[in-house]
Amino acid sequence: MDKSDKINFEEEFEKALRSYGYGFPETEDEVAKFEEEADKIEIPNLPPMENPSEILKKGKIKKFGLTHSLRVDHSAVQNMARAAREGKSISEATKRKMIEDRKRAEENQED
């Protein structure tokens, strides 16, 4: 992307944001209008959030399983993996490590 494309993209992106009412006010008039409108917006009172330390004191968090099965195109996964390796093969040491990691992950999933 050259500089002119980047500038055009930024201009179009800003126009799109502004068309939906997003973006930062830039002029004094825009700031005044924003402040006027912001005073009309009612912000709901949200319930207080639980202290993270208290959550951690409760102990282990139960994992939730998937409610539906995922269908995976394994040939696509293999092609992506090969591309990530830049077409190189996997060493035996790496294969052993992958098998160990998978076993460990499956054991942890059963907990």
Keyword list:
111 residues, 5 helices, flat
Structural write-up:
The chain has five helices and no strands. The chain has 111 residues and is an all-alpha fold. Among the domains are: 3-38, no CATH class; 71-111. It is flat, with a radius of gyration of 26 Å. 0% of the residues are buried.
Concise structural overview:
With 111 residues, this protein is mainly α. Helix content is 58%, strand content 0%. It has five helices and no strands.
Distance between the termini: 49 Å
User: Into which percent range does the helicity of residues fall?
Assistant: 55-70%
Low-confidence runs of at least 5 consecutive residues: none
Number of helices: 5
Question: What oligomeric arrangement do these chains adopt?
Answer: single chain
Which series of helices and strands comes N to C?
Answer: HHHHH
Number of strands: 0
Shape: flat
Main sheet: strands, sense, barrel = none
How much is the average pLDDT? 78
Structural class: mainly alpha
Instruction: Please tell me how large the radius of gyration is.
Output: 26 Å
Q: Note the beta-strand portion.
A: under 5%
